[in-house]
Amino acid sequence: MATTYATENLICGQIQTDQVYLKADTYYRGMPLKYTAASDYYEYSATGSELAAIYLGNPQATSRVLSAAGYDAVIKGGQVFQDGFVNDSGAALTIDEDYIAAAGANGFYIKKK
Amino acid sequence: MADTLDKFTRTLKKLYEETGNMLLGGKKGIDQFLFDIDDMDTSANFALDQLIVNPEAVAFRHPDEESHVRKYSSGSGTIYEVPHASEKTPISEALRDAVVAGIESTGSFSSKHAKMVQNIINQHVSAHTVTRWKMALDTIRTGIFAPLGIGGKDIGIKIDYGRDASLSITYDFTAAGADINEALKELIDAYRAYGGSYDNMCVILGRKWLEKFSTDTTVIEYMKSNQANIILTRDILPPELFNTQGLKLMANYLVPGEIAPVSICAFEPRYKYVAYVGATASDYMPEDEAIIFSIGDDRYRVFRGVDVLDGNGKAVRTVGEIVFDSFNTKDPVTELIRSQTRVAFVPGNINRTARSTGTFSES
């Protein structure tokens, strides 16, 4: 069986992290999250202007299933790769200039590939 | 009010210092006592192969009959991810100006700074120590290694060793005829049923269990009678078992109906456990629980590699109970003292431990 080895494709500079309360969902490293104040939790959103955090979790695991809302690690700001973003299925998320500009306002500097 | 005379008011300050549960010189921590095999390496994970077999008896046969076939039990292997813990404390410009407890305000900057760094290191060491103590006890109690995140929250890195449910029992002290001897017997029975060893059997009792033990009529009767065959030894000044800080050996006791004595202990270090900032201080050993294990069983205290900065600011990988480094932010000038560890408590066989949770009356 072929094996692929880990590569870093999310963190590319100084980052700031936190542990926050997340909505029940399946989380993949690199999922952009928004904050839903009415529910007091973070959840997936692919809209750049809503980017409040990026799911970090455990990089050795491919994903984490939160069957109920719970806590995990997120990136709250800093330099991240354009390539590292994934959607809520874990597939690559297309990050365009609109997204990069909007995310910049939220403290995320997205480095292009 | 300005004084014209410089008064001779005091001598040099005395410093009275207490830093939580620091491990005292010459003592061992309960994490080392419970998980007595250290495994240190700069790698990331811990691999454990388990080959746990209890072969059945052989089958006899008639002459000229074919041999019976005995299958080989191959065992199984598991790779455990060892989680990181790291904390940093900033020394800002304001702190560098501040007077440090124990050093005179007229003291030199270097002596104040050295004392401050030493205090920070002590506080980090104490924090790591109490975390390890609690995690080691909890692993034996629950069968789950549970590192928690900020605010004591589960962040999905627990390791559940899958202890059999029959090893977590309950005992109702409020039922008619219930007493500590029956409670201990049931705990030992549960432990023995899964192959627990009679050798060096040890129980750690919570406070309410201890109270039951100390006031039990049978135990008191043994204490009173000076029998030739001693079935209870108690010291009015309980020693620390194997020089383990806070682990008091209350008695060596042959529970009625059992064939080997058990060391009855209580874990009561100086300070209670505070899980996170703002958490209520709690007992290390919950008051309504008792755990049993053999001191001689193999359990692993695993440390793995952490990435730190060396003297030149280069990233290096090293391993240790706690690894310190420091780094600076340039503007404003802030020095950050950082402590890191990567630790897991892995029992050789979690089914060699058991826990009983008691039900007590309200009083």
What does this structure look like?
- The complex is a heterodimer of chains A (113) and B (363).
- Chain A is mainly β.
- Helix content of chain A is 7%, strand content 42%.
- Chain A has one helix at residues 97-104, and strands at residues 11-22, 25-28, 32-36, 41-44, 53-55, 63-66, 70-81, 108-111.
- In chain A, the strands form two sheets. In chain A, strands 1, 3, 4, 5, 7 and 8 form a six-stranded mixed sheet that branches. Chain A has a two-stranded antiparallel ribbon with strand order 2-6.
- In chain A, strand 3 and strand 4 (41-44) form a beta hairpin.
- Chain A is globular and about 45 Å long.
- The model of chain A has no long low-confidence stretch (mean pLDDT 92).
- With 363 residues, chain B is of the alpha+beta class.
- Chain B has a single domain (39-53, 74-363), classed as Alpha-Beta Complex (phage-related protein like fold).
- Chain B is 21% helix and 28% strand.
- The longest helix of chain B is centred in the middle third of the chain and has 34 residues, at 109-142.
- Chain B is globular, with a radius of gyration of 26 Å.
- The A-B interface holds A 18-19, 57-58, 60, 64, 66, 70-73 and B 44, 81, 149-151, 153-157.
